[in-house]
Amino acid sequence: MFTNNQDGLELSTLMLINAAERRGIEVEILDLEDNFIRLKKGDKIEYVKQATRTSADTYIAPLMMENKEVTKVVLREKGIRVPAGIMVKSTTEAMAHYQEFRGKDIVVKPKSSNFGIGIVIHKNIQCEKCYQLAVNQAFTHDTSVLIEEFVPGKEYRFLVIDDEVVGILHRVPANVVGDGVHSIAALVVKKNQNPLRGKGYVSPLEKLRLDHTEIAFLSEQNKSIETIPEVGETVYLRENSNISTGGDSIDFTDAISADYKAIAVKAAQAVGAKICGADIIIQDLQKVPDDKNYSIIELNFNPALHIHNYPFVGENRHVDDKVLDLLGF
What we know:
Layout: H1 11-22, E1 26-31, E2 36-41, E3 44-49, H2 60-66, H3 68-77, E4 85-88, H4 91-96, H5 98-101, E5 106-110, E6 120-122, H6 128-139, E7 145-149, E8 154-161, E9 165-172, E10 175-177, H7 184-191, E11 197-198, E12 205-206, H8 212-220, E13 234-236, E14 248-251, H9 258-270, E15 275-282, E16 294-300, H10 306-309, H11 319-326
Parallel strand pairs: 11-12
Antiparallel strand pairs: 1-2, 2-3, 4-7, 5-6, 5-7, 8-9, 8-15, 9-14, 10-13, 15-16
């Protein structure tokens, strides 16, 4: 059962502390703001930052995952499907390639990012100005930007710890469901009253927002925050499905075949990661993996644990215990 965290720690770190104390491990918070803790049992000491940055991973592994271009190169060499695309160093360079992407579904994102920051998705891009705005937004987060094909299908987060998939979530983009009475703005307020939702990763789910990105996405659907959706109508506020931007999480750990789990493990091993969040797009779960049915769109070096213990729908996977097992406790 989830209870609101009053300590200011990220929920994943708080979970790890609680799991450690249940095992009789001494826990010391070294830096509350940085979620930096020390675990000690007997002569054994381990340092952990933000629940998943540990001594189990080398220094280079998270740097590889942070750099999306390097990640793509390494995964492609291992025969793992990744989206096609280009990397650009300036808006001028990006605009020179606009006609190549015009009419296609594309994703524009910073070369190095996490938590879905700076990512913009456009379907059937026909607006040159919209393309430029997406590129400019990505450049506010990095000096290089990736422009890639949008891979259709559903997105799943595979959490890999010590060469094992310990949890899988399908993440649904931030949304509200109409009741025929309330506006989208009012429905957002109502949904945000759920105690599972908070801000700053101290709760299982993040509060929905109605900022520029959401308002622009509603506009593409010919809707505004004042629109009153019909009864049962699902209105999506964003294209990307990150929990950090208000998405919902549905546990799929037991519903996805070992073939796809093996791909996630292979991807983590390719970058030498012991803890890794692999975001995989799958078109049809009933089909075996092939170049047309799946693609890894990102590897995450600091994957959230709490989303697997407190999914919007599904069971607690106790992934905090898996981290302690990895560390030898």
